[in-house]
Design a protein that fits this description.
single chain; 266 residues; Rossmann fold; seven-stranded parallel β-sheet
């Protein structure tokens, strides 16, 4: 008679001995994800255009053995190649990549007033950046059956006026996610997180850090009763980077406190 499987305890440090790269990791959601990686026992390499913010992370974390910063412009291929190479030189391996860097302002201009240069800037950073980082990290990720997590947005599924460039870039990132999951499998899993309203004011560099100004109504309109925090996205990222999600790939996960399932009437 076959014995039933034993009950195994959950690993308190699911990313122990793993190296995770986080683009746009010096502030906001990216910093929250980097915090989560360190808390989960992993090492983290953050890349960011803002050197002041990156250096502040290194000073505040006091985790020099498990954390490193490199200046990164995800829209420039040479910058991406240098950053990936420096991560491999520093840590010797890559187990996970979080494509988080992006232009965060969804409101640009009406379509008739939107310049081609502005449109292209959104695509270059929010979408092409994920392509470039994935391209150059993929060989190292394949060596360790790694995982990629793309940070998209609920605006890939719903919109406000004058947000076409942002919505298109984030919608493209969702499609890129399931396409790459098929191409990179079975060695590498690829998933996406679609954050909703995340308050990041307290997660900026020290010179720009402040407490978020949120009203009771801001919190109450969310079915969970509050606006989100970078820790909420970090928790989902750890799941998708770890072996706990070993049977999950090509999916996108909405993390928005229930806002997109709530019917709205004017």
């Amino acid at each position: 008679m076959t014995r039933p499987p034993t009950i195994a305890e959950y690993d308190a440090h699911p990313l122990r001995d793993q190296v995770i790269l986080v683009t746009g990791g010096a502030q906001g959601i990216g910093r929250g994800i980097a915090h989560a990686v360190l808390a989960a026992g992993g090492s983290v390499m953050i890349g960011d255009l803002d050197a002041e913010a990156g250096q502040a992370c290194m000073a505040e974390w006091q985790a020099s053995e498990r954390a490193a910063f490199g200046r990164l412009d995800v829209s420039r291929e040479a910058s991406v190649k240098r950053w990936i190479a420096s991560a491999l030189k520093r840590f010797g391996r890559i187990d996970g990549l979080v494509n988080n860097a992006g232009i965060v302002n969804p409101h640009v201009a009406s379509l008739t007033e939107l310049s081609l240069a502005r449109w292209n800037s959104y695509l270059a950073t929010n979408l092409t950046g994920a392509f470039l980082c994935s391209k150059y990290a993929l060989p190292a990720l394949s060596d360790h059956q790694g995982a990629i997590v793309n940070i998209a947005s609920t605006r890939a599924l719903q919109s406000e006026p004058d947000s076409e460039a942002y919505a298109a870039s984030k919608g493209g990132l969702v499609a890129f996610t399931h396409a790459l999951a098929v191409s990179a499998g079975p060695r590498v899993r690829v998933n996406a997180i679609l954050p909703g309203w995340i308050a990041t004011d307290a997660w900026r560099k020290p010179s720009a850090r402040k407490a978020p100004k949120l009203s009771r109504l801001d919190h109450a309109q969310h079915p969970v009763g509050r606006v989100g925090t970078p820790e909420d996205i970090g928790a989902m990222a750890i799941y998708l980077l770890s072996d706990a999600s070993g049977f999950v790939t090509g999916q996108h996960f909405v993390v928005d406190g229930g806002m997109t399932v709530k019917m709205q009437y004017v």
